[in-house]
Design goal:
The chain is of the alpha/beta class and about 230 residues long. It has helices at about 25-30, 50-60, 75-85, 105-110, 150-155, 175-180, 195-205; strands at about 10-15, 35-45, 65-70, 90-95, 100, 120-130, 135, 145, 160, 170-175, 210-220, 225.
Length: about 230
């Protein structure tokens, strides 16, 4: 781990939410519990449930580390994440979905591999909401550095199954790389916005590492398979 990140809060976590009142507390607490997390920025995409009040109750104990932004009009995850990027200041940015959560000490493993990298992802623990068997998104056991061709190839659907495409990865992203190359989420997209951003980053020369750690818990809802 580089000296600038050792034992320091250096990651802002962006959580775009829409009607996630039942899961947002778990997501927020998992991010706040990581010592390397600077701020958790919740961008509420015009929810109509109790998401706002749940986040407000958590702000009282977060000591300023939890930031809440509400969009007046629903714009989709790309719009919400871009507004989160506008509010972030840390040298690294991480994405967390409102129904997912981090396992303990996630950032340590990612930052340990961050030297010379612009994006660093880990494998995912895929937890079925209906209680089925746990799976992994990749299942690899070694550090990987992927190029654009590999990334695109690994996004080809391989029939009905739990989502395994690399576009579902949730890397930490070096803020200076995003800013230098003027990279933001494509606000015209409501699906595939992660894939589009990672593709453009790799085309711009991003160094994208994947570590074998499994510290991102992806909660898979019923019917969430690819290849339909």
């Amino acid at each position: 781990m580089h000296e600038e990140t050792r034992n320091k809060p250096c990651v802002d976590v962006l959580i775009a939410v829409w009607n996630d009142a039942g899961t947002i507390e778990r997501a927020v607490r998992s991010a706040l519990s990581d010592a390397h997390v600077n701020h958790v920025i919740v961008i509420d995409d015009a929810s109509t449930d109790d998401t706002a009040s749940v986040v407000a109750s958590l702000q009282q104990e977060a000591g300023g580390r939890l930031v809440y932004r509400r969009l007046e009009k629903n714009g989709g995850p790309a719009v919400a994440r871009n507004r989160g990027l506008d509010s972030s200041t840390a040298p690294w940015v991480a994405i967390l979905d409102g129904d997912d959560y981090f396992l303990p000490n996630r950032m340590t493993g990612l930052l340990d591999a961050s030297e010379g990298a612009d994006f660093v992802a880990d494998d995912q623990v895929q937890i079925r909401e209906d209680g089925g068997d746990t799976e992994f998104l990749i299942g690899h056991g070694a550090l990987m550095t992927i190029d654009l061709a590999t990334f695109v190839t690994e996004n080809l659907s391989k029939g009905p199954r739990l989502r395994k495409e690399f576009g579902f990865l949730k890397p930490i992203m070096r803020r200076s790389f995003l800013d230098t190359h003027q990279l933001r989420y494509d606000e015209q997209l409501r699906l595939g916005e992660d894939f589009a951003l990672y593709t453009r980053a790799l085309a711009a020369g991003a160094i994208f590492k994947i570590v074998p750690d499994r510290t991102y818990a992806s909660v898979v809802r019923s019917g969430s398979i690819s290849g339909h």
